[in-house]
Write a structure and sequence with these properties.
- The longest helix is centred in the N-terminal third of the chain and has 9 residues.
- The chain contains one helix and five strands; from the N terminus they run H-E-E-E-E-E.
- It has a single domain, classed as Roll (SH3 type barrels), CATH 2.30.30.
- It has a five-stranded antiparallel sheet.
- 19% of the residues are buried.
- Strand 3 and strand 4 form a beta hairpin.
- It is α+β, with helices and mostly antiparallel strands and 59 residues long.
């Protein structure tokens, strides 16, 4: 995925399924300049991490 698409998903009023390493995640924030996103697993909102958006997969 690219940063532009990650931002579209983040800003969307619809729930769009995104996975990181095979696990469903929620995008918390997108840094287009840094090509990164702050995410957390749907079942573990306390475990936020920052990852490169290229590692995110839209399902």
């Amino acid at each position: 995925m690219n940063a532009g698409r990650a931002k579209q998903i983040y800003e969307s009023p619809n729930e769009i399924t995104v996975h990181y390493r095979g696990n469903p995640i929620w995008i918390q924030q997108v840094d287009e300049a840094g090509n990164s996103a702050r995410i957390y697993p749907l079942n573990e909102p306390e475990n936020e991490i920052t990852v490169n958006v290229t590692l995110l997969e839209e399902m």
